[in-house]
Amino acid sequence: MDTGSAMTNKSIRYWLGLIVLYLTGLASATPISVEIRQAGGGFDIQGSYMSPLTQCQAYVLLTDFSSDEPSEGIKSSKITRLSDQTIRVEQMVEDRFLFFTTKFESIIDYTEYPMRGMDLRQVKGYFKEYRGSWRLIPREGGTLFTYQAFILPESSIPMFLIEHFMNNRVQQRFEKMANRANRKKDFIPERCQ
Q: What residues does 113 pair with on adjacent strands?
């Protein structure tokens, strides 16, 4: 794909993101930004979205591993505190990729940095390697959620198909997270009072 095509696709995704924000009532929010590029045999992912939450509300939402809200593909979840800063989340996941349904166990360790974000590292799961971080940056009118990750797929599926799937899936997940943050703007957790 030449640079002109990439810019066109990026522009289309940007404008589609704005339309989705408008239609979902988040038109005043900063658009969702997601960039995925191939690197080191895998993918570097950079993403962000603005929320109306305070930094404390955003941190509580980000670290709510036991949320009652259903998560797409998560069949079961177990949370274990390993230390004051580290939590292990073990999940049974069922995911669809093209015409295939995959079931796997996912174990991810999260290192929390109170009010600032967290790092994550896959211990066991679908990918050969998955590591990343979330950071919360206070801004006027809310908090900016930023995400950075590296994913090394363990698959015989061609990389261009995986990249296409990831572009759509990551964008959708960010839209859901931004919507959830918008719904939680009036909820003040006890530890934020």
A: 117
CB 49 within 8 A of CB 30: yes
CB-based contact 143:53 (threshold 8 Å) = yes
Residue-range definition of the domain harbouring residue 117: 72-133
* Consecutive H or E run containing 113: strand 100-113
Q: How many domains does the chain have?
A: 1
Q: How many Cβ atoms sit within 10 Å of the Cβ of residue 50?
A: 22
Is residue 71 within 8 Å of 50, Cβ to Cβ? no
Q: Is residue 129 part of a domain?
A: yes
What is the average pLDDT across 166-182? 86
The tens digit of pLDDT for each residue in 48-94 reads: 999 999 999 999 999 988 766 656 677 888 999 999 999 999 988 88
Q: Is 174 helix (H, G, I), strand (E, B) or coil?
A: helix
The SS3 call for residue 28 is: coil
Q: In 3-state terms, the chain is what percent helix, strand and coil (to 5)?
A: 30, 45, 25
Q: How far apart are CA 100 and CA 155, in angstroms?
A: 13
Torsion of CA 143, 149, 154, 158, to 10 degrees: 90
